[in-house]
Hints:
single chain; mainly alpha; Arc Repressor Mutant, subunit A; 48% helix; globular
Amino acid sequence: MRSGQALNPIDVAVGIRLAEAPELTYGQLSADLGISASNAFGSVERLQYAGLLRPESRTVNRLAFLEFLEHGVRYAFPARPGKDVRGVPTSHTAPPLAGHIVAYDALVWPSATGSSRGRAIEPLYAKATELPERCPSVYESLTLVDALRVGRVRERKLAVEALERRIRVSAA
């Protein structure tokens, strides 16, 4: 592997957004995700190098991307719940899993402007806490990814099923 080609956590968000809308420009990706256009460009290059985007394009290799999310993301970008803080709901505490799982241990991305309290987990990238307003569909998908990163078997199973529907449906 060439130097600098290892996946970064932001690449997961970029891959999710491109699965929804492969026609987006780098400027649109940066606006939706709160990152620079150069970061969006670098992310696309890493995703292509890893085989998660089709060669020479920004079209998500859906089977490979889903396989990475299901089996790799929790090892590549692990998270461990920490202390109780104010933040943005994630994992089983946020939509779309919140309506399917009754849990007493809320999980949040730390944020002073967050609407909930719970055990902190580090988001995949710093601006993820802005996603509920900036790009709600990516926010919901990243909460499912967090369920894969920290969830128990039931949460992971529900998250995989929901991600499969989202990523395959967006192919239409």
